[in-house]
Amino acid sequence: MSGQFTISQLAKSAGIPTSTIRYYERVGLVEPEGRSQGNYRLYSDESLKKLKFIRAAQTTGFTLDDVKALLLDGSGGTPTCGSVRGLIEDRLIDTDRRLKDLRHVRRVLKSALQQCERQKKSDCCHVVAGLHRG
C-alpha cells in the first residue's frame, strides 16, 4: 500500500495497535500529515517507515526517549555516529546489567527446581513458602 493511510490502515501495515500510534503522537514521535474529508487522520509512507524504525529500535533495546534522539539530532538532521555513541554505550551497559540480573534469576529458579525435585509431591513447596515470606 502506498500513498495515504488512515490510522487503522497504518496500524495494520506496521503491525501495531492504533492505540500505540496515538501514544506515539502524544509523545511527539509521529504525526499525521493531514486529515481526510471525513476528518480522519492521514499518514504517509514516511510515517510507516518511521513506525517500523521505532519498533526495530525498541527491539534492539532503545527506549522511546532514545528513539527521539536517534530520529533527529539537535539541528533537525540525521544524527551522526558520534552523537549517538554515548546512547548506544548506555544501552549496552543497561543490557549487561539486565543479563546479570537474568543470570541470577536463572540460578535461583534452577535451585528451586532442584529443591522441588528432592521433595515429595505432597510436601509443602518451600519455594512458594519462601516467596510468601518475602
TrEMBL record:
Q: Which InterPro entries match?
A: DNA-bd_dom_put_sf, MerR-type_HTH_dom, MerR_fam
| Keyword flag Protein biosynthesis | no
In terms of SUPFAM superfamilies, this protein maps to: Putative DNA-binding domain
Mind listing the GO molecular function terms for this protein? DNA binding; DNA-binding transcription factor activity
Every HTH merR-type domain range: 4-73
Reading the lineage from the top rank, the first entry is Bacteria
Q: Which UniProt keywords apply?
A: DNA-binding
**Pfam families tied to this protein:** MerR_1
Q: Which PANTHER family match?
A: HTH-TYPE TRANSCRIPTIONAL REGULATOR ZNTR, REDOX-CYCLING DRUG-SENSING TRANSCRIPTIONAL ACTIVATOR SOXR
Q: Name the chain's protein.
A: HTH-type transcriptional regulator ZntR
* The species this protein was found in: Novipirellula galeiformis
Instruction: Cite the source lineage.
Output: Bacteria, Pseudomonadati, Planctomycetota, Planctomycetia, Pirellulales
Name the gene behind this protein: zntR
